[in-house]
Amino acid sequence: MARNRIDKEDALDKHLGLLKLVQILSFLVVFVAGIIIGLAASSHMNQYFTSQAKLFFTNNVASAQISPEDGNCTTIPTPCHTLDCLSIDTFARPNNLTHSMTDEELFWRASLLPYKEDYPFHRVPKVAFMFLTRGPLPMLPLWERFFKGHHKYFSIYVHANPDYELNVSTDSPFYGRKIPSLDVEWGTVLLVDAEKRLLANALLDFSNERFVLLSESCIPVYNFPTVYKYLIDSEQSFVESYDEPTRYGRGRYSRKMLPDIQLYQWRKGSQWFEMQRNVAVYIVSDTKYYTIFKKYCKPACYPDEHYIPTFLNMFHGLLTANRTVTWVDWSLGGPHPATYTAVNITESFIRSIRNNGTQCSYNSDTTSVCHLFARKFDPSALEPLLNLTSTVMEF
Ligand SMILES: *[C@@H]1O[C@H](CO)[C@@H](O)[C@H](O)[C@H]1NC(C)=O
Ligand SMILES: *[C@@H]1O[C@H](CO)[C@@H](O)[C@H](O)[C@H]1NC(C)=O
Ligand SMILES: *[C@@H]1O[C@H](CO)[C@@H](O)[C@H](O)[C@H]1NC(C)=O
Ligand SMILES: *[C@@H]1O[C@H](CO)[C@@H](O)[C@H](O)[C@H]1NC(C)=O
Ligand SMILES: *[C@@H]1O[C@H](CO)[C@@H](O)[C@H](O)[C@H]1NC(C)=O
Ligand SMILES: *[C@@H]1O[C@H](CO)[C@@H](O)[C@H](O)[C@H]1NC(C)=O
Ligand SMILES: *[C@@H]1O[C@H](CO)[C@@H](O)[C@H](O)[C@H]1NC(C)=O
Fold first, then answer.
1. What pTM was estimated for this model as a whole?
2. Which of 61, 128, 194, 289 is most open to solvent, judged by the fewest CB atoms within 10 Å of its CB?
3. What gap in Å lies between CA 366 and CA 368, rounded to an integer?
4. Could you list the residue ranges that cross the membrane (predicted)?
């Protein structure tokens, strides 16, 4: 019995051994054959897979293709003429102002600050000239002459009535520079909305470093290189901000703004500001104080004269020189500044705006250049002003 069992086990062992041998042999054959086939085919295979991948991605792009003519992103020069909506150019330096973002979406996008110090592209800091107007820009020829030859160093943004069409020739620096605009009611918070909209659109271009707000009645009184250097080299913003203890200043404060805004923090200043990039980001990012002004600063309180000066005084006082670089004449008294017409334009008048003997602080020094821009000028002043550009304004 026992032996029989051993015999049987022996036979079984032998059988299993044989099976194993066959298995191993066949594995070896398959394995070696595999290596040979693999080696022979590897080059073809590589090619095959690469072309499959290519086909796959090309098909995908093709199915989502947008024709460059009606797209809103930059066109990249590839044979297939596809749009690269995530290119660094599209993101950091958009060249088309058309968009359909709401203010909420726009302000959020504009509030983004790069955490990384260096830019992955050659960044030439630009000055954003932001024109807030109802319609036409009567001083356009003067500005066009001012900008001529300096296109690398500035960007233009125009906020006008939504139905106003900015009709300028295609070679004008103003061509295509109207931002998506909404109605503005002077004296209301809608005016601040328009200012923020200009700032936010300009912030989308990461090349913009300084932001100046101008009206249709503003003129430049220095040439572009002087203005550019003055602004780019300044450590501070030129936002007027002062305490006026009269009914035109403190009198416009409302106790309903307590406890967030105290009377001693309340400031007044010209609407026509100039600011550096981080200050512009602070303005478009604020909701809390903007909302308080929207609720409690109504005529005779004018948000455009108090919101930014007060907000900066409360949180970023050291970043502003507390003076404006836009000259204006309040000497006549009354609620509106003087408007200069053709008959008032003389060489000595423009020279006195450029330098009247007053010194202004600039960085840690002083300068006789206090104003770079001036208002208000009637459309009739254009011709005599164009006559003075080369002799007085040097452009
Ligand atoms: C471009 O933007 C405009 C306005 O926002 C929009 O109407 C249009 O559909 C956009 N075009 C493309 C191709 O996305
Ligand atoms: C735009 O201006 C040109 C000349 O400057 C004029 O011929 C054209 O009619 C104007 N278009 C509109 C829509 O005003
Ligand atoms: C910007 O894009 C819009 C819509 O895609 C187009 O209609 C418009 O002509 C473009 N503007 C410029 C200045 O290229
Ligand atoms: C501007 O005013 C703030 C206070 O709001 C002050 O801290 C700052 O020193 C002033 N700047 C200059 C240049 O006078
Ligand atoms: C402009 O000139 C006219 C005529 O000489 C004068 O009456 C007017 O006061 C001047 N305007 C200003 C703002 O100086
Ligand atoms: C010069 O201009 C400043 C600011 O506009 C003014 O305060 C000052 O009185 C003027 N000085 C003279 C001498 O006109
Ligand atoms: C412009 O200057 C020229 C010559 O200097 C003069 O003849 C002309 O009357 C001036 N035009 C105006 C509008 O001042």
1. 0.81
2. 61
3. 7
4. 21-41
Q: Topology of domain 106-327, per CATH?
A: Spore Coat Polysaccharide Biosynthesis Protein SpsA; Chain A (3.90.550)
Quote the ligand 2 centre to 170 CA distance (angstroms).
Answer: 12
**70 within ligand 1 shell (Cβ under 6 A):** yes
Among residues 311, 314, 150, the alpha carbon closest in space to that of 232 is found at 150
Q: What are the extents of the domains in the chain?
A: 64-96, 106-327
Torsion, Cα of 245, 249, 253, 259 (10° steps): -60
Q: Whose CA is nearest to atom 14 of ligand 3?
A: 96
How far does residue 314's CA lie from ligand 4's centre (Å)?
11
Helices within the chain (DSSP H only): 2-63, 88-92, 103-110, 140-147, 189-203, 224-232, 277-285, 288-296, 303-315, 347-354, 382-388
- Give the Å distance between the CA of 274 and the centre of ligand 4: 15
317 membership: H or E segment, kind and range: none
CA of 353 from ligand 6 middle (Å) equals 9
Residue tagged 């792009």 (tokens): 61
Residue 156, pLDDT above cutoff 90 = yes
Residue 356: CB within 6 Å of ligand 6? Answer: yes
383 lines ligand 7 (CB under 6 A): yes
Angle, CA 46 vertex, CA 41 and CA 50 arms, to 5°? 150
Structure-block tokens of residue 306: 């108090």
Ligand nearest to C-alpha 357: 6
pLDDT (0 to 100) of residue 17: 56
Q: How much is the pLDDT for 19?
A: 56
Q: What's the pLDDT score for residue 162?
A: 96
Are 124 and 207 contacting, i.e. CB atoms less than 8 angstroms apart? yes
Ligand 7 neighbour 346 (Cβ under 6 A): no
Q: Average the pLDDT over 1-10 and give the result.
A: 45
Identify the residue whose tokens are 């960085």: 363
Full DSSP string of 24-62: HHHHHHHHHHHHHHHHHHHHHHHHHHHHHHHHHHHHHHH
Q: Are 325 and 370 a contacting pair, CB within 8 Å?
A: yes
Whose Cα sits closest to atom 5 in ligand 6? 327
pLDDT digits (tens, 9 = 90+) for 117-132: 999 999 999 999 999 9
The two beta strands, 360-362 and 365-367, are: antiparallel
